[in-house]
Write a structure and sequence with these properties.
Elements (H helix, E strand, L loop, with lengths): L3 E3 L2 H14 L2 E6 L5 H13 L2 E6 L19 H11 L3 E3 L3 H4 L17 H5 L3 H16 L3 E5 L3 H13 L5 E5 L19 H6 L2 H14 L4 H14 L3 E9 L13 E9 L2 E9 L1
Parallel strand pairs: 1-4, 2-3, 2-5, 3-4, 5-6
Antiparallel strand pairs: 7-8, 8-9
The protein binds pantoyl adenylate (PAJ).
The site of pantoyl adenylate (PAJ) has 24 residues, from β2, α2, α6 and β5.
Amino acid sequence: MQLNLVKNMADLQQALAGLRTQGSVGFVPTMGALHAGHASLIKLAKERSKNVVVSIFVNPTQFGPNEDFTKYPKMLEKDMETAKAAGASLVYAPSAGDIYPEGFSTSISAGNMNKILDGAFRPGHFDGVATVVAKLLLRVVPQVAVFGEKDYQQLCVIRRVVQDLDLPVEIIAAPIMRETDGLAMSSRNAYLTPEERKTAPEIYKTLCETVKHIKAGMPHRQATAEGVDKLSSMGFKVDYLELHDAATLNSIESLERPARLLVAAWLGGTRLIDNIAMG
Ligand code: PAJ
């Protein structure tokens, strides 16, 4: 199948008009540096739609002033190959000016999500995500859009945006793709030194161990505190390791409803996130 590239809204609309005559449109928003995790989202979208549009845009408004916006990896040609192999029909790689023309000033607030987990550690991050994803959904108007559980809180934010703003799209969650040693695939793994790369899978191991302890009856705050100690002793600087309600991300006391154990931790200069289902 042919893969086309468009770089601005006018060309996107023209290409979409052609695709819509063929049938349904699925959408996978990304920031590029595509890996097998992204490819799995494209494949899932393709199972559900005639054509899949992939956006590649490193969105400046979701990065904090001291975060990795300027060093975020860029590799459009390789990304085109990955997107094509996974079954995409169109890549939309806009410039910042195409998304945020001069005078742009409106944004969507992710509300309470800004107060917990990554929201608390990355001020403004989810407002930036909510705004750009809403804009992209309104430009592409897909029937389905696929997001990874890797960024679990982001998935919850987007489900809320779609529900709260009545956006006519079905959000599909894709499972986390991992390296063979358990490390969740991420474009940011490229920042890790060889030594850090060896230590990084301990994040997932600690998640699995913590779930085991909680299932065996250990109070979840004790189990997560032990997990934090273990990661800290291995050189991680842990932002959080916490159990939350899987649907609302509210704090939970008991395990009556499905829960999610979420972690964010620094290894050297790289911030890694991961999560695992419970119950
Ligand atoms: P990015 O980090 O490029 O991720 C794009 C999509 O791929 C997200 O839905 C993310 O959860 C998913 N993904 C990343 N790694 C994954 C893995 N190992 N397994 C499964 N899915 C994975 O998330 C963003 O970009 C941006 O915030 C974006 C939504 C594009 C808005 O700018």
